[in-house]
Structures are given as structure tokens and as C-alpha cells.
């Protein structure tokens, strides 16, 4: 709906500019959207002088002489404007702007000024585009602007009208919606208890990482870990404290990792650590770091309850131990099972 309203306002303005001078002036001042009228004739004449002096590539010239952007902009004079323009730009009263808009040193302004100058040089006076303006109080506003030459001034460009529709609120709403969608997608791949990634993300991302590893001839390692005697913690301290243990262990694991490595809450008291671009020795070293950090941590669960935890680890590496996603997970799980079967609280590598 907002897009339709914006387009309708611009179409009305375009029709207005083709009307009689008296009618045009009345509508110009009473228009609900911001309007400003420029005299671009001096800029047009200056550009023609530059061309006559042998400067054919104006874009390159402005790049080589950035000061010329501000000089060219100073040649654009303001002929008229309406109250809606003053409100848009935050200008108090009817202190007539002499320059075209308000020149600043901001990158957005310099970029816009350069584009306007080049469009004038190419004779592009009927242009519709989205721009970012900075008001007198420093507020950034996004507008849709449409320029047209007032009838009878096509040769000199002494009267060019610009209509501006403020779409800042709509852009902010669209950005908020995109952020909301991003958070929703992110939550869909997160475990509700620990905040780590979940199995869905593991299988989706691991497939991509294996493709990259294959294309780049790089290793990819997986650590499968399981808390030892976790059932005893639950039986002794209850399920609520069991959940707290899982949360705190997740924090310990995450604290040992740096991107692109990431941790996954696999199931219950099982975790998976994915280590892109890491070989077997590096993965074994990381498993040892996590194991040591856990051993040195006293997990306080509240009400004076404290526990110490141990875990078993199985490590496998692509393509050394598996040729695909499922094979890699199975190899790490097999290595973990072998550790659990021989005494727990240790790190094992896959042995096929």
C-alpha cells in the first residue's frame, strides 16, 4: 500500500508540473509532499565549458578533482520550495535555502552530488531514484526523489522541480521485519535449552562444509562428546539441575571455540563440535582443551549444589576417516563408543 501511495503522489506531481504556471505555483506550495525547484542553468553552462576545454570524461575528471564536485554543486541555485520541504529538511521558518539542499562533508551527500552532476551532464533530468538526505539537525532520511524540467525550460534547465517522498519509516519497518525474520531463522537452528546449534543446523551446515573441504582439498574434523555418568547427576540432584548442568557444559564448550568452529547440542547430554579446516591432531588438541576445562570447572547449580563433570570424546576427520556427512558422524560416534566401552573420561580417534 505504501508503495502505491508513493507512486500516486509522484504521478500527481508530474501532472502538476505540466499544468499552467499559476496553477502550478498554487499546487506547488500546497502539495503534501516535499518540493524544491532548482536553477541548473549555471551548472549546465559550466559543464559545457569543461567539455569545450577538452574534458570528455566528466566522471574521471571529478574523481581526479574532488573539489570540483562541491564547486559544481554550488552552481545549482534554489528557485522555490514548499512548506513540506522545509519540514522534511528540518528548516525553521521561511529562511530560503540558496544552495541545492544543504551541502555537507558527509559521504552520502558527496555521492549524491556527484551523481546529480553527472546526470545533468548527460541530460538526464527526468529521474526517479532513492536517496539518503541529512537534515539540518543531522537526521538521516531516506526519500524517493523524482526530478522534472518545468515546461518551457528544457534547453536552459533554469527550472527543474524535484519531488521528495519520505520513506524513512517504511525503510525502518522493512529493516525491522528483515531482522525479525533473521532472528526467527536463527532460532529455528538453535537448541532451546543451551543456545547451541541443533541437529537440523548440524546436518545442513556440515554438508556445506564437506563440499568446501572437498573443493579446497582441506580437512574437516568432528568431535562427538558425551557426559560421563550424567544419569547419576539427575538421580541425585533432579532433572532441573540436570538441565542446568547441560546449559553450563554448553557454555564451557562454546568458550573453547573460535569461528568457524561451532558446537551442537546433539541429544540429551551429547554434544558435537564441528571444526572446519582442522586436521586430526588439531581436533584431538581441541578435545583435550575442552576436557581439561571441564575438569577444572566446578559447576554451581544453586542452593549449595556443586558438581564436577567428566566426558568422553570421539574424534574423526574428513576425508581421512569418511567420505561423506553421515560417514563422518558415524566415525566420530564409533570412536566415542570405543572410549565409553573402555573406561570413559578419555579421548579416542576413529580406527577403522
Automatic annotation (TrEMBL):
GO terms for cellular component: plasma membrane. GO terms for biological process: cell adhesion involved in single-species biofilm formation; negative regulation of bacterial-type flagellum-dependent cell motility. SUPFAM superfamilies: Nucleotide cyclase, PYP-like sensor domain (PAS domain). Pfam families: GGDEF. Its EC number is 2.7.7.65. It catalyses: 2 GTP = 3',3'-c-di-GMP + 2 diphosphate. Residues 218-352 form the GGDEF domain. Gene3D superfamilies: 3.30.70.270, PAS domain. GO terms for molecular function: diguanylate cyclase activity. This is diguanylate cyclase. It comes from Desulfosarcina ovata subsp. ovata.
